[in-house]
Amino acid sequence: MSTLAAPKPTKPWAARPKDRVRDGLLLLTALFASYGFVALTPMKGKLAYFATFFFFYALFTSGYQFYSRGSASAKDAAVNSIVLIGAALTILPIGSILWTVIQKGAPGISFGLFTNDMALATPTDPLSSGGLLHAITGTITLIILSLIMSVPIGILTALYLTEIKGSLTRPIRFLVQAMSGVPSIVAGLFILSAVLYPITKGYSGFMGALALTILMIPTIARTSEEVLNLIPNELREAGTALGGTQWRTVTMIVLPAARSGLTTAVILGVARIAGETAPILLLTGGGDRVNPNAFSGPIGSLPYYIWKSFNAGSPEAITRAWAGLLVLLALILLLFTCARFLSARKIAR
Amino acid sequence: MSAITPEKVVPAPREISTKPRRSDKVFRAIVTGGGLSSLAILGLIAIFLGYRSFEVLRQEGFSFITQADWSITTDDAGNVIESHFGLSAMLVGTILSAFIAVVIALPVSVLSALFLNFYAPNWLKKFLISLIDVMAAFPSILFGIWGFLVLMPSVEYWAKLINHYLGFIPAFSVNPYIFSRSPFVAGVVLAIMIIPIITSVSREIFAQAPLDRIQAAYALGATRWAMIKAVVIPHGRSGVIGGAMLGLGRAMGETIAVFTVLNIVFQVNWHMLLGAGGNVASLIILKFGEASPYEIKALMAAGLVLFVLTLLVNAIADLIVKSTGKSGR
Amino acid sequence: METRVKPTSLAYVANARTIGTRAFGTGLETRGIHAWFGKHHVLSDINLDFAAGTVTALIGPSGCGKSTFIRTINRMHEFIPRAAMAGEVLLDGRDVYSRGTDVTKIRLQIGMVFQKPNPFPSMTIGENVLSGLKLAQLKVPNKDDLLEECLVSAGLWNEVKDRLNAHGGSLSGGQQQRLCIARALAVRPRVLLMDEPCSSLDPGSTLRIEETIRHLSETMTIIVVTHNMQQAARVSDYTAFFLSDGGPGQMIEVAPTNEIFSRPRDQRTENYVTGRFG
Fold first, then answer.
1. Which residues of chain A lie closer than 8 angstroms to B115, CB-CB?
2. Measured between alpha carbons, how far is residue A195 from residues B19, B34, B268, C108 in Å?
């Protein structure tokens, strides 16, 4: 090996300190220019700063590129800034939402929040009384009930699409897609008209769970389908070649191999419905005390609690709503982190 | 054919029969049953909503879609004396705000999808993709409350600016001078809700742009933008339109987020900046609380119309996305 | 005309018949090229001169760094994440990696043809040929003449002159590859890199492309990566043999093509060209 004179690997194409200084200077110039422009003209406000800053940045970078490399590079630099605007406009609302929820919700978070329900309090009471225990237990009840119903159906649908591959595969894939577009309020109305009015005639957690099931099935089915498609066909053929029936091949080889991917699918389904509000408002009745019986009587839930507090309107109630949103958001972020963690290992060992 | 050729015997293909074992038959039946559930659920939704709303639809006829009144008078015993149910203002409002949402969200989403695929460094890309995926799962009530308390004041200010400079265009005129809770505000909130959806659809389609053509473009001396224009955009165009249709469907069916930031008025209004709008889904939430049994039936009919509308939009979106898959050699 | 003799690259080149006989540029030189993918050292210390107007074939077993080497020449190497390099690529004595060089201008001068034909499917045949001008925003006075000239040079004109508005995807594989060559020619590069241009084609199409290469070498410097030793023997003036002994790929030997095949100096080269391995 002629390693005695091997030079150091370099990246001549990467930006060098000098280039970074130049880019930074362009950025600073654009900042100052926008500041000066806003100060000298009758324009004012954050919007004006934002707009003029990006305008000047695009102008300066493309001007520089035009000067040093010509019109094609100038165009490239201008598009570069426009693409940056697009990305900024996508990120800004996310940042604003997260920041607002944390900032406004944190004052409403206390230990009592997780140990009390609202049976003896109203949303406009001081924050020290009442809590959202009933909402948390209710949301958990709803999630568990809808999981029990939607996971088998969702995974069976995915199995149909990947394992059976019958003549109905295409239409069913289309229907699952269509089902994911059903507005949540329509799902709520359907359960109202098909189950609540003719059969149970009363609000209950189960009614809400039925509607949530409809919304959850397509998410689980589509994600599971993607996961099952990742399982190499050789595994299935190996199973069949060993004399296994399709039933045994699927239950003993395919499903275990896809286990962590399927868990991800289920978690994403839960995240989809955890904050669903419209059908909850129509179907669960939203009680104020912890209701352990999901099949009779109104049941509280986080979205209902947030909605009720928000509509009560007083400062205390609004803080309650933000605190509820913070808890709900934390739940969804937790679910997503789990899903990420699991899908990092898409197919289990 | 006159030539006499020795007859060549072509054997008939043998039939290969595999008789599935009983366990397999049961398995296939169960899985097929599960697979058909989506058909069953969609069918049941149509049947039940249709059955419940039949009476109102027969009473109102075609004017259920063309009229804007929504009124019901009952006597003390709860019997209906007179009723007029019309959805036109709500339908116009739904379409208007969903359309505004897509017009705003589409360019932003395409740009951020381009940013994620071709501009962002790898670590930032991974982080942003997770962030945008999480945002797609934010509950609508969060968008509603944030939109009402945080975003609406700014959007009203933008609306006033637009009105000030572009008010001569009929769509931007405002009379009376009311800007709060307008279809424009609802459209902006919906845009923020559907940006993650359109972004992730576009991002996936752009990521499938064939690498060999990307390299060919660069090898010909293309800048990044010239490469995107020549290779990525032609490849992803129809997929992006499909993604926009998916976003449109979602925006049309959205309930809570719109309800909090939109003023429901039973009068057709095409002026997007004026604080008077309509929305089918929000109407249902608005009227549900104190509705009499007969009015509930009218709300079911409204739900049916919304269901058909979103189904249609989704079907078109699906067709467009599928056709990209085929032509994307 | 100057004659460049570099001690690092072999004296053969200096004595070769083609040096200095053509009036376009001074050719291409590489000085101590190394390449890495992450920590993986794939190419070590390549010094080669490519005199103007010659065809050089790069041969060697798979994975010896031939493709990586030519991708460092027109700076396509840097598209691979975590790639790194060392050394210099001199085009007319100027390092293409020097600071402030506009990489798009480099790629306009050093064209490339890929393993698999990759015409742009959304463009017609004519648009494909001229796509480089559009991509780099170049203006030419007479596009039709350029179009015809490039297609004639690529040996495709007679087959497509009546259907320039058909889509590029409607051509056969061999025709598509010649279309890609015509596309690379339209920006008038001075060097053309060809990365196994015939590996996905049938023998007939391969022959046509080889004719094209011979014909093009009258006006530009060509570097061809190939697995096919007969092809190297047929089209090239010089042949360089690359080999990896488990470590990074190295250049074992470079010589006029007939010498490499008739009396190689290195035992390993002889083993390879006589088919004893690889």
1. 83-84, 86-87
2. 41, 21, 34, 70
Write down the pTM of the prediction. 0.86
Which residue, chain included where needed, has tokens 């509607």? A211
| Sign of the torsion angle spanned by Cα atoms A324, A327, A333, A335 | negative
Per-range mean pLDDT, top range of A326-340, B2-16, B181-195: B181-195
Contacts (Cβ under 8 Å, ≥6 apart) of A232? none
Which residue bears the tokens 């800053």?
Answer: A53
Contacts of B122 in chain C (CB under 8 A): 81
Is the pLDDT confidence value at A330 over 60? yes
> What contacts B82, CB < 8 A, 6 or more positions away?
B71, B72, B73
Chains A and C form CB pairs within 8 A to the count of: 50
Q: Which residues pair with C225 in a beta bridge?
A: C58, C195
Give per-residue pLDDT as tens, B65-115: 888 888 888 777 777 778 888 888 999 999 999 999 999 999 999 999 999
Q: What's the rounded mean pLDDT across residues A307-332?
A: 91
C-beta atoms of B215 and C120 within 8 A: no
Q: What does the alpha-carbon distance between residue C47 and residue C6 come to, in Å, rounded to a whole number?
A: 10
pLDDT higher at B273 or B98: B98
Is B123:A257 a contact under the CB 8 Å cutoff? no
User: Are A89 and B120 an interchain contact pair (Cβ–Cβ within 8 Å)?
Assistant: no
List, for residues B218-252, the tens digit of each pLDDT value.
999 899 999 999 999 988 888 898 889 989 999 99
Closest CA to C97 of C113, C83, C112: C83
Spatial separation of the C-alpha atoms in residues C233 and C264, rounded to whole Å: 13
Q: Sign of the C-alpha dihedral, residues B18, B23, B29, B30?
A: negative
Enumerate long-range contacts of A128-132, CB under 8 Å, 24 or more apart: A132/A300, A132/A302, A132/A305, A132/A320, A132/A323, A132/A324, A132/A327
Q: Which of residues 174-203 of B touch A (CB under 8 A)?
A: 192, 195-196, 199
In terms of Cβ atoms closer than 10 Å to its own Cβ (0-12, 13-18, 19+), residue B55 is middle
Q: How far off is chain B from A347, nearest CA to CA, in Å? A: 19
List CB contacts of B240: < 8 A, sequence separation 6 or more. B106, B110, B113, B198, B201, B202, B205
What is the rounded CA–CA span in Å between residue A2 and residue C43? Answer: 11
Nearest CA in chain B to A71: B223
DSSP-derived letter for residue B172 is G
Average pLDDT over residues C4-29: 45
Which residues of B are less than 8 Å from C116 in CB distance? 212
Q: Are the beta carbons of A73 and C104 separated by less than 8 Å? A: yes
For residue C75, list chain A residues with Cβ-Cβ distance below 8 A. Answer: 13
H or E segment at C255? strand C249-256
Q: Which of residues 243-302 of B touch A (CB under 8 A)?
A: 246, 249-250, 252-256, 260, 281, 284-285, 288, 299-300
Distance CA A127, CA A283 (A): 28
Taking the Cβ of residue B108 and every Cβ of chain A, the question of whether any pair is shorter than 8 Å is answered with yes
Q: How far is C249 from chain A (nearest CA, A)?
A: 10
In chain A, residues with a C-beta closer than 8 Å to the C-beta of B20 are: 246
Sign of CA dihedral B200, B205, B208, B211: negative
pLDDT at A75 over 70: yes
Closest Cβ opposite residue C44 in set A2, A8, A13 = A2
